Amino acid sequence: MIDIRDLILSYSGVSVLEVPELTVADGTLTYLIGLNGTGKTTLLRSICGVIAPAAGTVRVDGVLIRDHHTTPATLGLHLNYRAFDPRHTARRHLRWIARARGLPTGRVGDVLEIVELARVADRRLGHYSLGMLQRVGIAAALLSEPRTLLLDEPLNGLDIAGIRWLRELLRDLADTGTCVLVATHLLDEVERNADHIVILGNRRVLADEPFAQLMNTLGPGETSLEDAYLRIAGLPIDTTSGAAQ
């Protein structure tokens, strides 16, 4: 579980995101959505301690997160698919991460099977496609068998089969009790799989509610999450094309 209280995130003394209260529950697949620059990645980085808040607290599974301290073993994260040495193989990369986090390297084979890369695990990462690199990052996030999982745009680069695979993986993890928080722009996928929605905009949380409850608020002419999002975010819509202006 993620528990945030009175959080203020800032750059150069200027507030970029304020979150008075936010709880991301266990056993729930929560999607974090918002335009570029609304603070999705910043929030995820603060949850894992990469960014220090100007004020407030973040707790993951009851543990207070402090900037630049060791990531709790219960937290798995994949925030940057570019964070790898292209000369390393997937197996070597995952073993290195396991050792750095004090996790058993024997888990590497298991996660390679989960992300369906065991057959190419000894190929150098520099020869991997974007979708394959995303799978490596997800494998790294699963090394600790996390109770809480953070993923930043994990669907980018995945083909149709990969998207369906990830959809089922996230659903299975949430259904077995994992707290799953995913930042994404792909609203169609959110509609297929979400339990809960958090919308960011204007340096704050604009919505924090169960997906079904949010969809029950659809107004006249609204038929999708995209419609609800545009209204909540205060974005104008070109009614002749259905697109945001």
Structure characteristics:
8 helices, 12 strands, 245 residues, 4-stranded antiparallel beta sheet, alpha/beta, 6-stranded mixed beta sheet, single chain, ABC_transporter-like_CS, Rossmann fold, disordered C terminus, ATP hydrolysis activity
List the helices and strands and how they pair.
Blueprint: E1 2-11, E2 14-24, E3 28-33, H1 40-47, E4 55-60, E5 63-64, E6 75-78, H2 90-100, H3 107-114, H4 130-141, E7 148-152, H5 160-175, E8 179-183, H6 187-193, E9 196-201, E10 204-210, H7 211-215, H8 225-233, E11 237-238, E12 243-244
Parallel strand pairs: 3-8, 3-9, 6-7, 7-8
Antiparallel strand pairs: 1-2, 1-4, 4-5, 9-10, 11-12
Commentary on this structure:
The structure is a single chain. The chain is built from eight helices and twelve strands. By secondary structure, it is α/β, with parallel strands linked by helices. The strands form three sheets. The protein has a six-stranded mixed sheet with strand order 6-7-8-3-9-10, with helices on both faces. Helix 5 (160-175) links the parallel strand 7 (148-152) and strand 8. The protein is globular and about 55 Å long. The model is unreliable at 239-245 (pLDDT under 50).
